[in-house]
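Deliverable D5.2: sample structural annotation.
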Amino acid sequence: MEKFYITTAIDYVNGSPHIGHAYEKILTDVIFRHFAKRTKNAYFLTGCDEHGIKIQKTAAKLEICPQDFCNNNAQKFVQCWNLLDIHYNQLIRTTNTNHKKIVQKIFKKLLEKGDIYKHSYKGLYCSGCECFLSDKDLDENGCCLIHQKKPDLVSEENYFFKLTKYKDRIIEYIKTHPDFIVPDFRAKEVLNQLQDIEDISVSRAKSSVNWGIDVLDDDSQVIYVWIDALSNYITALGYNPEGESDELFKKYWPANVQVIGKDILKFHSIYWLAILMALDLPLPKHILAHGWITLDEAKMSKSLGNVVSPENVLKGFELNHPDAFRYYLAASAPVGKDGNYSDLDFKEKVNAQLANSMGNLLNRTLSMLVKYFDGIIKPEFIVKNELFDKAQVLIDKTKTHFDNFEVQEASAEIMEFVYELNKFVTDNAPWTLAKEEKWTQCGQTLYVVLELMCVVAFLIEPYCPNIARLMTQQLKFDINTTFDDIMFSNIKAQKLISKEEIKPVFLRIDSEFADKK
């Protein structure tokens, strides 16, 4: 691959990060880490959305200025992503000076082009959605379908973007690019939304909202979320609507995939496409709309008091790194479907898969190598068998799954191979071969498992970077190997490991020794 550019939605910093935010960032990070093994030019952008009426009102209640409020809350997101080992290249904030300047230029360009016009408007505005709603967006009680609150009746003069001008082009693009929206069943939903699309407000009167980016040459208006927030994907790369853009933009745009929640698909697959078309810019290759993470099968909600903090999960289970949590969330649901979190399911799955199956397999295989051969791989141990062919199939399948952003399916394939390796050990019983003094056969069995555990560590690393690093340290295998270089001669004839070097890569959560190492 020449390059890979992936983005997340930027998080609204009106509150603290929760497990829903974490799911999107972990999902994106897993995809990014996988593709970073396939190209040297991979770039991962995330960020914070920091303007709007909710920020303004919350800051006012706390009696602090909106910028200080944003600074405090943005830091919570930064700390959370560090805690979860989210390996982004850049975290953009919409209060950054450079972002604001570029957004003003984008607005000005669209205004001069005639794609933005001023218009008096009266409509129902949902502060939760940060948009005006139509009757289709309301339930029988007149409440927003997402936030379950009645929108406010707003009447003001705003600038509007000619979304309807690009309606037919967007419909044509979606129909001729069936893999643009992932999963593909969401495309029908978007095409239905396009039927009744109207021009959208892209500014607010300062009399209603003053916490935003000023419209140039009109001090009565601030630029509204759609041009402000959505433009972050190109402002972060140094896009310049008035001249030469930065090298970063030339290198990485268009995005290979933009990861968002299903609730904001309309804005990214319709509004964002229209803005890019108006700017004469290439469109992203894929929009991946993930599902929600429910809590014990119930949708998380601040009002219900069932929002889960990622930090509390790690603290509650006394985990000293986030790999188990990362693995569990990334493997929680097929792409686009809702996943579920429960403490019991989390503990059972990571114990069974990461500790009992993968971790224990490596630990006991290395322990037998030390016990029977003083940790030495002898030349006569290095053989191949049919599992090597299956490992190559696994590598190819994993790449195909990630090409389709099937993160859960890829993890299931990897774990299925781990089960097969466990069966291979059981069937060949190296302990019995040692007892019978069939030393070469015993050593060959251990070698095959250890060689293929290098492949497992390589493929599982995007999900579990810390576990994979510990595995590869014990296997003397380079964790920075790429898909171009992965091969079946990673374990050399040498003294591989001593008894003192063998460490459990992941202990069971309910073990009295779990994560106390």
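Annotation notes: The chain has a mean pLDDT of 94. Residues 13 and 74 are 6 Å apart (CA to CA).
The annotation will be released with the project's public dataset once the embargo ends.
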